[in-house]
Amino acid sequence: MRTRRYASNGLEAWPGYVDALSTLLMVIIFVLLVFVLTQAFLSVVLSGRDKALDQVKQQLAQMADSLSLERSHSTELQASITQLNSQLSASDKARDTLSAQLSALAARSKELLAQRDALLSQVQSLGAQRDTATKQLGESNAKLTDTQQQLAAAQQQLADMKQQMAELDKTVTADKATIQARLSDLAKLQEQVQALSALRDQLEKQAADAAARAMTETERREAVALELANEKKLGDSAAAQIALLNQNVDQLKAQLAAVSQALDLAQKEGRDKDVQIANLGQKLNAALAAKVQELQQYRSEFFGQLRKVLAGRPGIQIVGDRFVFQSEVLFPLGSADLTQQGIAQMTALAITIKDIATQIPADLHWILQVDGFTDPQPLKPGSQFASNWELSAQRAITVVKMLIADGVPPDHLAAAAFSSYQPIVAGDTQADYTKDRRIELRLTN
Q1: Domain count of the chain?
Q2: According to the model, what pLDDT value does residue 360 have?
Q3: d(Cα 443, Cα 445) in Å, to the nearest integer?
Q4: What sign does the CA torsion over 176, 179, 181, 183 have?
Q5: CATH number for position 166
Q6: Cα separation, 21 vs 25, whole angstroms
Q7: N or C: which terminus of the chain has fewer CB atoms within 10 Å of its end residue's CB?
């Protein structure tokens, strides 16, 4: 440019301000470029800050939600703390009550320990008595076995004698029928003899009439001889038949006498066997009575110990030879699941049963029968039991299972159901229904 300017005849056509303007323009363009780049950089930075701000806002929103949840949890925790404080107060009261009961139980346990020591001394003395009784019982069992064998043999002999008597009765009946038939034939023959006698009388009359008529003496003799010969033949035949019948009758009478004698002998032997059987029955009854008496002794001990264990507990009664547990003590209404109080009752009962079971001889068969009873009210709709039969049976089975779980031998337990058909009282009030809902325990053989 400078060369061009110098070559333009000395005239300067490019003023200096152009350079200044161009330089200024370049500076402005550079500044604008810097500004644009700065603006772009700032926009990028600001967009990143906006994103970060959005994230911060989202986190703030989440923190606000968490804070509200924490506040609700805090409110719930305050309510729970209040409830726990009330429960703690109740627990403290229950603890104080239990402490008092524990003190009473400790005193009771000391008394029971003293009673146990006394019972142990009694058990030792009873053990010696039991050994003696067991020995005597073994001898009695041997005698009872011999007696039962003799009784079985006597019964077999009696059966044979009865069979022989039946056969003799059949023979006597048949002989009586034969005798009756022979007697009937004899009666018929007697009738024939009477007819022949009548015929003979008639012939004699005819002979007399013929003699009266003018017949010769020879003809009369021949006719009379002929008639006498015929009558003699008939008489001999009838006499022979009569003699044969008399012989048969004598034989039958002899057989009947022999049968009667044999029947009398069989009846006498039967009476002797009856006397022997009666004596054997008395011996057997005496042995069974001894067994029952022995079981009664252990039943008395069993009930005595149960009375000590269950004395003073509500809902339990002793009626004759039974312990009656009201069902409300053991089960909720309409249910067959044991309550905590019922489990405690059954555990104490199982301990007593196991203690008694060790003292009863092995050859003495005993059963603790658990009977379930309900009231006559029908079950509510939707109940798990179809009727009172199922409810009473399941309650008895539940008690039996609980006793087995506590160690009572299952071969000495039985469950029975009576539904509502064995009420204690005949009323229809709620108090009567409460008495009817029960579990009964009975020691039997």
Answers
A1: 2
A2: 74
A3: 7
A4: negative
A5: 1.10.287
A6: 6
A7: N
CATH number at residue 434: 3.30.1330.60
Q: Are residues 244 and 328 in the same domain?
A: no
CA distances from 29 to 39, 113, 124 (A): 15, 113, 125
Output Rg (C-alpha) for the chain, integer angstroms. 62
CA-to-CA distance for 327 and 399, rounded, in angstroms?
A: 11
Q: 250, 271, 286 — which closes off a domain?
A: 286
| 177 and 270 co-located in one domain | yes
With DSSP H G I counted as helix, E B as strand and the rest as coil, what are the percentages for the chain, rounded to 5?
80, 5, 15
Say if 45 falls within a structural domain: no
**Alpha-carbon separation of residue 27 from 23, 192, 203, 350 (angstroms):** 6, 188, 203, 111
What residue ranges in 93-193 does DSSP mark as E strands? none
Q: What are phi and psi of 155, to 5 degrees?
A: -65, -40
pLDDT of residue 147: 61
Sign of torsion, CA 5 8 10 13? negative
Give me the phi and psi of 130, to 5 degrees please: -65, -40
**CA 315, CA 435: separation in Å to the nearest integer?**
9
d(CA 8, CA 349): 140
Alpha carbons 399 and 439: distance in angstroms, whole number:
9
Task: Record the tokens describing residue 230, joined without a space.
Answer: 């015929």
Residues 193 and 327 in one domain: no
Instruction: Give the tokens for residue 331.
Output: 């089960």
**What's the Cα-to-Cα distance from 26 to each of 132, 242, 440, rounded to whole Å?**
137, 188, 118
Residues 181 and 230 in one domain: yes
**pLDDT tens profile 6-39:** 455 555 556 677 788 888 889 999 999 998 999 8
CA 321, 304, 126, 346 torsion: positive or negative? positive
Q: What is the pLDDT of residues 308-331, one digit of tens each?
A: 655 555 556 766 667 787 877 788
Range of the domain at 235: 143-286
**Structural contact between residues 443 and 366, judged by C-beta atoms closer than 8 angstroms:** yes
Please enumerate in sequence order all residues whose Cβ is within 8 A of that of 252, keeping only pairs 6 or more positions apart, or say none. 175, 178, 179, 182
Q: Which two tokens stand for residue 383?
A: 């109940």
Q: What is the largest CA-CA distance in the chain?
A: 246
